[in-house]
């Protein structure tokens, strides 16, 4: 059974963002499975770094999309993104520097909780806004 799977509750109504959210969920699920399988720490670090870089890319493209539809909560959303990146960086750096061979349960739980609550509670607002205002979402951000 997967640790984290895409489901319709995560649909924000914007194909490009849905696709990126699916990739993020897949990356997090893979990281969880690799952590459970006790792969070497250096490979986990590589995958944490890849996840971080994809999150940066995703946030940049999501913010570009929100700007393109003049989303009124863009600045607040950017601050949330920055806070999430800071938390992810701290957890990743802590793992790199500690002597543990596996990611902490705190790290794993953070990933799932962060992404699921952020998509459902925050990201869906720009999809609703785009639909309500009749603005055509960019499909290839």
What does this structure look like?
This protein is an all-alpha fold and 141 residues long. The chain has one domain (15-133): Hemerythrin-like (Four Helix Bundle (Hemerythrin (Met), subunit A), Up-down Bundle), CATH 1.20.120. It is 73% helix and 0% strand. The longest helix is centred in the last third of the chain and has 29 residues, at 105-133. The mean pLDDT is 90.
Would you identify the CATH architecture?
Answer: Up-down Bundle
Mean pLDDT: 90
CATH topology: Four Helix Bundle (Hemerythrin (Met), subunit A)
Strand content: under 5%
**Count of all domains:** 1
**What distance lies between the first and last C-alpha atoms, to the nearest angstrom?**
32 Å
Number of discrete helical segments: 4
Can you write the helix and strand succession as a string? HHHH
How would you name the CATH homologous superfamily?
Answer: Hemerythrin-like
Low-confidence residue ranges: none
Largest sheet: none
Q: Identify the overall geometry.
A: elongated
> In total, how many beta strands?
0
Radius of gyration: 16 Å
Helix and strand arrangement:
Elements: H1 15-36, H2 41-68, H3 74-97, H4 105-133
Keywords:
single chain; mainly alpha; 4 helices
């Amino acid at each position: 059974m997967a640790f984290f799977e895409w489901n319709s509750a995560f649909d924000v109504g914007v194909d490009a963002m849905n696709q990126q959210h699916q990739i993020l969920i897949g990356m997090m699920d893979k990281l969880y499975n690799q952590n459970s399988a006790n792969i070497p720490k250096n490979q986990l670090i590589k995958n944490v770094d890849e996840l971080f870089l994809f999150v940066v890319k995703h946030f940049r493209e999501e913010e570009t999309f929100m700007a393109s539809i003049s989303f009124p909560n863009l600045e607040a959303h950017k601050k949330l993104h920055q806070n999430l990146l800071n938390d992810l960086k701290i957890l990743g750096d802590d793992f790199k520097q500690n002597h543990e061979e596996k990611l902490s349960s705190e790290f794993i739980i953070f990933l799932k909780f962060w992404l699921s609550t952020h998509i459902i509670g925050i990201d869906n607002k720009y999809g609703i806004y785009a639909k309500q205002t009749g603005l055509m979402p960019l499909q290839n951000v």
